TrEMBL record, chain B:
Pfam families: BPD_transp_1. Belongs to the binding-protein-dependent transport system permease family. It is a multi-pass membrane protein. The chain crosses the membrane at residues 21-47, 123-144, 156-183, 210-227, 264-290, 310-336. This is ABC transporter permease. Its main location: membrane. Coiled coil: none annotated. Residues 119-333 form the ABC transmembrane type-1 domain.
TrEMBL record, chain C:
This is Nickel import system ATP-binding protein NikD. It is a peripheral membrane protein. SMART domains: AAA. It comes from Enterocloster hominis (ex Liu et al. 2021). GO terms for molecular function: ATP binding.
Length: 284, 346, 290
């Protein structure tokens, strides 16, 4: 019957996997390059040169220059590097919060569980951008406003996931036996449960990166985040707003494209890692 | 059998203790009220720990320089700067329950009035993009999930991933550049022409100003509902009951229409109702780009201008909107899903 | 058996192999062979049982015949229906009409659709409705079942509804995939009576089960699978006399039927015969050892 045809299909499936691995490697390399070069170019990003202001994109200045003669490519990469570093930091903090809250909700008894669940609902009950504005406002805006804002608002869904996972784990025979053997709750949580939660933790952490980066850019764009002196991607794009109507399209287009590319690659790389970590769920 | 086929998990979710639709409704409404109260406390705390002193900043600002000292005193008295935070919150909450949300520092009008005006501007924008993104996202998700791995699936998944990676404000900027600046099909900003009173604005003009913002919001909003619908659809199409329908000679079209839609509609609608909060969040960014005088822009203005009463009011109102979405979703679940309607929900 | 005319054979399976791929962590991919080189023939009026341990890929056999293998499975070999190759196009035309499947469990019913609609496949003409009612009452179900959702059916009711779906068609081949688990012996035999009636009306019945006793009692012939391979294909009555069986695994199975517990000696012999005894022990523990 159609046996032969299906076999070929199987081979193509393998090739697709190889292709996605290649794409994964390329994404990681690209992100690494942006992060490193942006860091190196931090000072070059704010160099002004009025002899080259308002240049459209050309061979010398890939993304053109702005009204102060700053090289938009260098500025964009520097801004994205900042976003990536900030994103990694805040996502890591958020993931740790999620882990600890999720674990304690499920291990420390009903009262704590109720409190954590309430906290999750609370954070999820306010539109994300508005909560970011509130936290940024509470911190007096600026670097700490955006950092704390992002670190404190991204943990809710992962915490919910981990809480559910721990509830399931708690019912598993070996944990129950360990509990009967007189091991303390904390011992159970950190010696028996935490290692089992690592895959969820890592997946959640990785999937948080793109969100953290997007929200950093958005809140900075609105004027609540990093200060205008920093080469932040949100600042670049919000400045470009003033020049949109004047036809200086390159100021908005290329930085935005590169931002989208960075977030997309984080998404893609994250999904690939998750797929490898949990082969049962996806067959593509 | 361990064939890697994921068993279809019927959409049972935790729905509290409500056994009947009415019980469910009461339980969810109470929960919603509690949540909104807590949101207001959280927002109040955040706003009062801020090092930014609303009166100092605003009195210093040109816009409020015209305020008379008596007005400033009145504001100080209203905010009770010397009172402990808990008392301040309680007096604010008591006022809110009486319908008084305070006075906006920037607009120098009652907060409730400002919010109502901005909300009525935003409502059409929010509703149309919510509906549009929901319908489009659902359709795309069904088409993609119908057959995993096909071209259609990969296009839709690819688009959703792209849309999820694109900042909403940048999408708005690109639309603005292309359709307003380059083609000049749509106005560049503001929901009404300047210098025209609200009564004179023609409906057509309003629509013309709302098209691009609505498009920007819908384009980004599609991704989550499309991906979610696709995911559910894939698991339905690989479920035992679709396998059996296939074995009983039902055509693929009939399977999608008879079994697919029936089973995917409830989770998709639930998600779409729960995503109201996301659309509001997106509107904050999009309205800023189009200088659309809606609630989102007001939130940004209030935040930047340290208009604490207004920001607090907007937070509470959006929290109510988001919670109503969730409430609607769980009620819908109770009415549509026979497993809950018939009281068999475990 | 070769002397039978091909037309009498409703289903002929020759050298059927089914395998599926599964991804491991990282880059790993493994091919799992579920059915290897299976031969099977079913004639008019006959019930043929395929017996094997749980997880031995029996259901894949049913799915392969119905042309509904999952996307990550592949098959080779030949399947003939009434002597003509069952191509994917032909099986699509025939299934649900001449070829019907009775699935394992209630999860094979749409959870959000009323039973009646599922039985009639949405058709509304009065003859179909009449037929549906007749079949339900002949299966001992009340008409109110039509207005119920699958989650409202008890285990036994659901099983009978599943059988009713097959009875709705005048099928020539009925494939029953584990139709009895969870039922007590009496109800199970009652269920098998329905299949015997279908066979008596001229259909061929393929019974896929892990329950050897049920197979021996109700089928005409029995094929035993072990590790995806056919180890014995024989008349059902052969199991009444161990001497008629050829393969040591089937002999052990035969001895392990209730009331016929194998002695330690017998197990020892089996070990010498090269059959991995943990397989047998596992089988017996699963099926009879509770």
């Amino acid at each position: 019957m159609s046996g032969m045809k299906k076999r070929e299909n199987g081979k193509r499936l393998g090739n697709r996997r190889l292709f996605s691995m290649g794409l994964f490697g390329a994404s990681v390399l690209f992100l690494l390059l942006v992060a490193v070069f942006g860091y190196v170019w931090q000072d070059a990003a704010s160099v002004t040169d009025f002899s080259r202001k308002n240049l459209p994109p050309c061979a010398g200045y890939l993304f053109g220059t702005d009204w102060m003669g700053r090289d938009m490519f260098v500025r964009t990469v520097a801004g994205l590097s900042m976003s990536i570093r900030l994103g990694l930091l805040t996502a890591a903090v958020s993931a740790v919060i999620a882990f600890l809250l999720g674990l304690s909700a499920a291990v420390l008894g009903r009262a704590v569980d109720g409190l954590v669940t309430l906290l999750i609902d609370l954070v999820m009950g306010i539109p994300h951008m508005l909560l970011l504005i509130l936290i940024s406002f509470a911190c007096g805006k600026g670097f700490w406003g955006v950092t704390l804002g992002i670190a404190l608002t991204h943990w809710a869904s992962l915490a919910r996931l981990i809480r559910g996972e721990v509830f399931q784990l708690r019912e598993s025979p070996y944990i129950r036996i360990a509990g009967k053997l007189g091991k303390s709750r904390a011992y159970l949580a950190f010696h028996h449960m935490a290692p089992n939660l690592l895959p969820q933790f890592i997946t959640g952490l990785i999937l948080m990166f793109p969100h953290a980066i997007l929200h950093e850019a958005s809140i900075t764009f609105l004027g609540f985040g990093l200060s205008p002196e920093e080469p932040a991607i949100g600042i670049i794009l919000s400045e470009s707003m003033k020049y949109l109507a004047m036809g200086k399209w390159w100021l908005a287009l290329f930085p935005g494209l590169l931002l989208t590319a960075v977030v997309l690659m984080f998404h893609y790389a994250g999904q690939t890692i998750c797929r490898m970590a949990a082969p049962g769920s996806v067959h593509e | 059998m361990g064939v890697g086929r994921r068993a279809h998990r019927s959409g049972r979710t935790g729905h509290g203790t409500g056994k009947t639709v009415w019980g469910l409704l009461a339980f969810q409404t109470a929960r919603m009220a509690l949540l909104v109260a807590l949101v207001s406390i959280l927002a109040f705390v955040l706003l009062s720990v801020s090092p930014v002193d609303p009166l100092q900043t605003n009195v210093g600002q040109a816009a409020l320089g015209a305020m008379s000292p008596e007005q400033v005193e009145r504001l100080k008295g209203y905010w009770g700067v010397d009172l402990p935070p808990a008392e301040r919150y309680l007096s604010w909450a008591a006022d809110v329950l009486r319908g008084d949300m305070g006075t906006s520092l920037l607009y120098r009008r009652p907060v409730a009035e400002v919010i109502w005006e901005k909300l009525s501007n935003s409502l059409w924008l929010l509703a149309s993009s919510w509906l549009l993104s929901g319908l489009l996202g659902f359709t795309l998700g069904v088409l993609a999930g119908r057959k995993r791995g096909r071209l259609c699936d990969r296009l839709v998944t690819g688009y959703s991933l792209l849309a999820a990676s694109t900042p909403a404000f940048w999408t708005a900027m690109v639309l603005l550049m292309v359709f307003a600046v380059y083609f000049k099909w749509f106005p560049i900003g503001l929901s009404v022409p300047i210098g025209v009173t609200a009564e004179e604005i023609a409906l057509g003009d309003r629509i013309r100003h709302a098209v691009l913002p609505a498009a920007a919001l819908s384009l980004t909003g599609i991704s989550s509902v499309a991906l979610h619908t696709r995911e559910k659809m894939v698991s339905i199409m690989e479920s035992d009951f679709v396998l059996f329908a296939r074995a009983r000679g039902e055509s693929e079209t009939s399977i999608v229409l008879r079994h697919g839609l029936r089973n995917v509609l409830i989770p998709a609608m639930t998600l779409q109702f729960a995503s109201i909060s996301e659309i509001i969040g997106g509107s904050v960014l999009v309205e800023q780009v189009f200088s659309y005088p809606g609630l989102g822009q007001a939130a940004v203005t209030a935040g930047l201008g340290s208009d604490v009463p207004l920001l607090l009011g907007i937070t509470v109102v959006t929290a109510v909107l988001a919670a109503s979405g969730n409430l609607a979703a769980s009620i819908l679940y109770g009415i549509v899903d026979p497993r809950i309607r018939k009281g068999a929900a475990r | 058996m070769e002397n039978h005319r091909a037309e009498e054979e409703i289903l002929t399976v020759k050298g059927l192999s089914v395998s599926f791929t599964q991804y491991d962590r990282g880059f790993g991919r493994k091919e799992i062979q579920a059915v290897t080189d299976l031969d099977l023939r079913i004639r008019i009026g006959e019930i043929v049982a395929v017996v094997g341990a749980s997880g031995s890929g029996k259901s894949l056999l049913a799915h392969a015949v119905m042309g509904i293998l999952p996307y990550n499975a592949s098959m080779s070999g030949e399947i003939l229906f009434k002597g003509t190759p069952l191509t994917s196009g032909r099986v699509r035309r025939l299934r649900g009409r001449e070829l019907v499947l009775v699935p394992q469990s209630v999860t094979y019913l749409d959870p959000l659709m009323k039973t009646g609609q599922q039985l009639t496949k949405g058709r509304k003409n009065p003859e179909i409705l009449e037929k549906c009612k007749n079949i339900l009452s002949s299966c001992g179900l009340g008409l109110e079942v039509m207005d119920k959702y699958p989650f409202q059916l008890s285990g036994g009711m659901a099983r009978r509804v599943l059988i009713s779906t097959a009875a709705m068609e005048d099928a020539e081949l009925v494939i029953a995939d584990e139709p009895t688990p969870g039922l007590d012996k009496k109800t199970a035999m009652g269920v098998m009576d329905h299949f015997r009636q279908m066979a008596d009306r001229g259909a061929g019945v393929l019974l896929i089960t892990h329950d050897l006793e049920l197979a021996v009692r109700s089928a005409d012939r029995v094929t035993v699978l072990y590790g995806g391979r056919t180890v014995e294909e024989t008349e059902a009555f052969s199991f009444l006399d161990e001497g008629l069986l050829k393969h040591p695994y089937t002999k052990a199975l035969c001895r392990s039927m209730p009331g016929k517990w194998p002695s330690a000696d017998a197990l020892e012999n089996d070990r010498e015969s090269g059959i991995p005894d943990e397989g047998i022990l596992e089988y017996m523990r699963k099926e009879y050892g509770r």
